[in-house]
Design goal:
It is built from 13 helices and six strands. The chain is α/β, with parallel strands linked by helices and 310 residues long. It has a single domain, classed as Orthogonal Bundle (Phenylalanine Hydroxylase), CATH 1.10.800.10. α11 links the parallel β5 and β6. The longest helix has 24 residues. The protein is globular.
Length: 310
């Protein structure tokens, strides 16, 4: 019998974010994509999931967009236990052909976007500690599965992700036509920065017209945050502007605070149109020198685009 089929974790097993020996060992072997070792989740891990799900459910019903709520129902997530990705995918794939794909940690930018192009969502398998339910600087399985994946059940939104992956591939292909290496690096860094900002202010922290408050949430960073989901919709401290591509690609952001500025799209069709415009702007050179500032582009993200297999 495979260990992966055993449900009961040994006393020392754990998949708590930042202290999971299994992931450290897999990373040491150079593994990025793995099978979810479900037997390693401890009862504390399941308790973290239960608490997170229990307190988020009323806020989803109040602030989330209808397609997200439909997605929660479609996935039949267990409120009491960390989900098995194979169970999630059994419900997800027939709806949008997307599937969650377990990873050991950070996925360099091009590889991440290319996974989206192939309808695969790189999914973190660790879960935050019970003492850190409110904020975690890195993603965990609650953010990825409860925050992102319900949106993937909606075909139009999943097509947005695929389209975004195609833009990333176009950026990498375009870079190969630039002979001057220094200029090539500069342009690729700017392109990645523009795409990262677009992704941040839409897929992660996007608002949409609708709902009892005039806007509702579709961004996964908001959908997985107990405090910020309400703050994003109701707080007078948040600036909410109609989506403007020129603003988005030039707007820096910081990850360790509630977002003071958010953008509102009209619909999922409107969002898809903006990804099309993003690619048009890429080919027109409008992403080649965006404003400086966050996010900073690390070496692995840059190299992933320069080394992309096209």
């Amino acid at each position: 019998m495979s260990l992966l089929s055993v449900d009961t974790a040994p006393p020392t097993a754990d998949l708590t974010t930042t202290r999971a020996p299994f992931l450290e060992q897999a990373q040491g072997r150079g593994e990025l994509f793995i099978e979810q070792p479900f037997h390693l989740y401890s009862e504390d891990n399941h308790e973290s999931w239960r608490r997170l799900y229990e307190r988020m459910l009323p806020r989803w019903k109040q602030y989330a967009n209808d397609k997200f709520l439909e997605g929660i129902d479609c996935l039949a997530l267990d409120p009491e236990r960390v989900p098995r990705l194979e169970d999630v995918n059994r419900f997800l794939e027939p709806l949008s052909a997307f599937k969650a794909k377990a990873v050991t940690g950070y996925v360099p930018a091009y590889l991440f976007f290319d996974c989206l192009r192939q309808r695969e969502f790189p999914t973190t398998i660790t879960i935050r500690d019970k003492s850190s339910l409110d904020y975690l600087p890195e993603p965990d399985i609650f953010h990825d599965i409860a925050g992102h994946v319900p949106m993937h059940t909606h075909r139009r939104f999943s097509d947005v992700l695929v389209r975004f992956g195609e833009v990333a591939k176009a950026a990498a292909r375009r870079a190969t036509t630039i002979e001057d290496q220094e200029l090539r690096v500069k342009i690729v860094e700017s392109n990645i920065k523009a795409m990262a900002r677009f992704f941040w202010f839409t897929v992660e922290f996007g608002l949409m017209k609708g709902g009892e408050h005039g806007v509702c949430v579709y961004g996964s960073g908001l959908l997985s945050s107990f405090g910020e989901i309400q703050h994003s919709v109701e707080s007078p401290l948040v600036q909410r502007y109609p989506f403007q591509l020129e603003w988005v690609i030039n707007q820096y952001f910081e990850i360790d605070q509630y977002q003071p500025l958010l953008f509102v799209v009209d619909s999922f069709a409107h969002l898809f149109e903006q990804v099309d415009r993003l690619e048009d702007w890429l080919h027109d050179g409008k992403l080649d020198q965006v404003s400086p500032g966050e996010p900073l582009i690390n070496e692995s993200d840059l190299q992933s685009f320069l080394d992309a297999r096209l």
